[in-house]
Design goal:
single chain, alpha+beta, 14% strand, flat
């Protein structure tokens, strides 16, 4: 069976910029021919902008940590007597959705999840899905790529083949299981698209056709005694009764324990798979995603500022259509770093405006930009930016 059709990179709208911010700043500073007077200022401007962004994200983290406290299965401190939010509270799910979106994650639709699960039945780790165990579930992905995996040939299982498989470079799971009073958060890395179902909290490892054939084969060996007696030509049916009972009993016992052993091997395989790919769980996911937001906002802001400053006519640059700014930023990343990203020009420009690096008139001159952002950091004018954005978007019901 061929793997089901999966979402393409364009369909996932991958906004992640797969370049470290230090590399971006160094490239800008080293290219005065392209970036004009910004070259030489980029390092200082970027560090000042990061300080403001970290202020904002720190307030977001504190807000999320309190919202999630009553739903955190790992909570090791006394919870508030009147929790701010429960696991199925729309306010909590709205905040988590905002967090993932700002960290450049894209929700995987029902069609995408179903396609990934169907693909998993074609190759990879086999599991059994029990939807009745899930109260709510959403998956979010960031980044696509390929890796080389060694798989057994389906037609010749004794042979191993190298196969290029598609992966999600980051995958987040938000799930509440039936009967639980907590909300599970998981973050994984480099997950083959066909193994997505193995990461779901309600999945159980199951056996492949070859596993089952191996177990039956082991049990069938116990019938050897019965076969030998039959071939020898036993005189009566009663003479076969005891060997038959022994043979069938041995087959049953060996099949039972063989099945249990194989099931444990599959479960152990799944556990090792999850352990190797796991990045964070529960409250640690909030911390990791907040750090991602800080990195992504700082990178997007300095790239947008650099692309606009490269025109040298800053007032003209301000009137660029957003699509043109996004295309120029994406082209620069492709040309300079050989990476692909659907640059989010709208969000980048809003960040520049919030930091004071752009207003309705024009882009702030590079030689003044550092002082402007430093003053912004001291006054803490936009510390509650993310909280205001969450409140504006309103509550979101958990995805069932």
């Amino acid at each position: 069976m061929e793997p089901a059709a999966l979402p393409t990179l364009d369909e996932l709208e991958d906004r992640f910029i797969p370049v470290r911010i230090e590399a971006l700043v160094n490239a800008i500073d080293a290219d005065p021919q392209r970036f004009g007077e910004l070259a030489g200022w980029a390092q200082k401007i970027c560090k000042a902008a990061e300080r403001v962004i970290v202020q904002e994200v720190g307030e977001l983290h504190r807000h999320l940590d309190r919202l999630y406290a009553a739903a955190n299965p790992d909570l090791d401190a006394l919870a508030e007597p009147n929790p701010v939010a429960l696991p199925d509270d729309p306010k909590l799910h709205a905040a988590l959705g905002y967090l993932l979106d700002r960290a450049s994650f894209t929700p995987l639709t029902d069609v995408g999840i179903e396609a990934a699960i169907k693909a998993g039945s074609a190759y990879g780790l086999r599991v059994r899905i029990k939807p009745e165990r899930v109260k709510s579930l959403s998956l979010h992905v960031r980044g696509r790529g390929t890796i080389t995996l060694v798989r057994r040939d389906k037609k010749k299982p004794w042979k191993k083949l190298e196969r290029e498989v598609e992966i999600y470079t980051r995958l987040a799971v938000v799930a509440q299981l039936t009967g639980e009073d907590c909300l599970r958060l998981k973050l994984f890395r480099d997950i083959p698209v066909a193994d997505v179902e193995a990461l779901l909290p309600h999945a159980e490892a199951t056996m492949t056709f070859m596993d089952r054939a191996f177990v039956v084969g082991m049990g069938a060996g116990s019938l050897g005694t019965l076969a030998k007696v039959a071939i020898a030509g036993a005189a009566s049916t009663s003479a076969l009764a005891i060997p038959a009972a022994i043979g069938f009993g041995g087959m049953a016992v060996r099949s039972f324990f063989g099945y249990r052993r194989k099931k444990r091997q599959r479960t152990s395989h799944r556990t090792e798979h999850l352990y190797d790919k796991n990045l964070a769980n529960n409250a640690a996911v909030l911390h990791t995603l907040c750090r991602m937001i800080a990195h992504e906002e700082a990178k997007a802001a300095i790239i947008a500022y650099a692309v606009l400053a490269a025109r040298h006519d800053l007032e003209e640059a301000k009137r660029w259509p957003m699509d043109e700014l996004g295309d120029r930023a994406s082209s620069y990343l492709k040309e300079r770093f050989k990476v692909s990203s659907r640059f989010d020009a709208h969000t980048a420009v809003r960040t520049l405006e919030r930091l004071g690096l752009m207003d309705d008139a024009a882009l702030t001159d590079p030689d003044k930009a550092y002082a402007v952002v430093e003053a912004h950091w001291r006054t803490r004018d936009t510390t509650g930016h993310h909280l205001a954005a969450i409140a504006e978007q309103g509550p979101i019901e958990p995805k069932t």
